[in-house]
Amino acid sequence: MERILGGGGGGGAVLPLILTSALALMFYRILFRLRKGANVQDAVVVITGASSGLGKECARVFHAAGAKLVLCGRNEGRLQQVVEELTAASGDAKQQTHTPYTVVFDLADTHTVDRAADEILQCHGHVDVLINNAGISYRGNILDTHISVHRDVMETNYFGPIALTQALLPSMLRQGRGHIVVISSVQGRISIPYRSAYAASKHATQAYFDCLRAELEEHHIPVTVISPGYIRTNLSVNAVTGDGSKYGVLDQTTASGRDPTDVAQAVLTAVRHQSKDVVLAGLLPTLAVYLRAFWPALFFRLMASRARKEKKPKDD
Ligand SMILES: NC(=O)c1ccc[n+]([C@@H]2O[C@H](COP(=O)([O-])OP(=O)(O)OC[C@H]3O[C@@H](n4cnc5c(N)ncnc54)[C@H](OP(=O)(O)O)[C@@H]3O)[C@@H](O)[C@H]2O)c1
After folding, report:
1. Is residue 44 part of a domain?
2. Which of 87, 89, 192, 246 is least surrounded by Cβ atoms within 10 Å, i.e. has the fewest?
3. 181 within a domain of the structure (yes/no)
4. Domain enclosing residue 58, as ranges
5. Which spans are transmembrane here (predicted)?
């Protein structure tokens, strides 16, 4: 240990090197945060799943920053409620704000997505930022899960967002600018037991948008994948179970998750800085991502032990 930390011989250079690297990293992070990034004032921003949770908070944060919003969801009444709340808060905003439009459609019905994309484009004639946020979670044991549940989760979390992205991309390419954002999850990087359908849909999301980022680079259209850990929303309440019924429980881990307003602020920062890939999670899930990559055998053992402990899906 002493030698590693610079006790003697060639190790003397190691401690200063570690300290210099750590300081350089800290300095870079501070500079990165201070960078103002692109302005979203008057930018046309489309948010799916804007009726609740993280999508609703993103609507609040981007509205206050002066974006022209198009809010999407399945329930017109809930979307209108969000519009009313934002309009009422307009007086407090430091920027000039705009009354949001709403577009109602079901992402799980990919046949309606082209029509929805047309409706979205009619609102302001173009789209600057598409935030694919809508999603549904799942709780269940693979042995008891009907294949139709896997398909349903994939329709909402994967096929819907990619269909909407592909329907809006041609207009971004024509105008020569745009930005695609997707809210994935830490479970798009690591798979934990009793979340198979959800983790699979988020892994697929990560893979598709990583490919898209590479393919769009020559067109200067950035792609941002955001992978949060637990957020305090109704995601677990709205989750489906193995037989397709609603889970209906606010898990303790979700209840004690991050404040959705903080996560929405981080989404705004990622959009402003055109970040490519952002993991917004605490120390343990972040370590788990690295463990899966660099010491998979240990990660698999830990997950198997977790599966044994949580024989029936209950919490987190
Ligand atoms: N909460 C967490 O712990 C957490 C962690 C990591 C990642 N995320 C991700 O964050 C995103 C937002 O989730 P949330 O936590 O805010 O959950 P939420 O409160 O349940 O919100 C989900 C949103 O998605 C919309 N939605 C669901 N199915 C849809 C469909 N078929 N078509 C159109 N819209 C649909 C819902 O709108 P309507 O029901 O009104 O249509 C709702 O606005 C999701 O992608 C989720 O995977 C959440």
Report:
1. yes
2. 246
3. yes
4. 37-309
5. 12-31, 278-304
CATH code of 301's domain: 3.40.50.720
In a domain, 27, yes or no: no
Is the minimum distance from the CB of 136 to ligand 1 under 6 angstroms? yes
**Active-site amino acid positions:** 198
DSSP state at residue 190? S
Calpha distance 152→166 (Å, rounded): 20
* Cβ neighbours, 10 Å, residue 159: 18
pTM above the 0.85 mark? yes
Q: Determine, yes or no, domain membership for 176.
A: yes
Residues 6 or more apart whose Cβ sits within 8 Å of residue 53: 231, 233, 234, 235, 260
Q: What is the pLDDT of residues 248-269, one digit of tens each?
A: 999 999 999 999 999 999 999 9
53 lines ligand 1 (CB under 6 A): yes
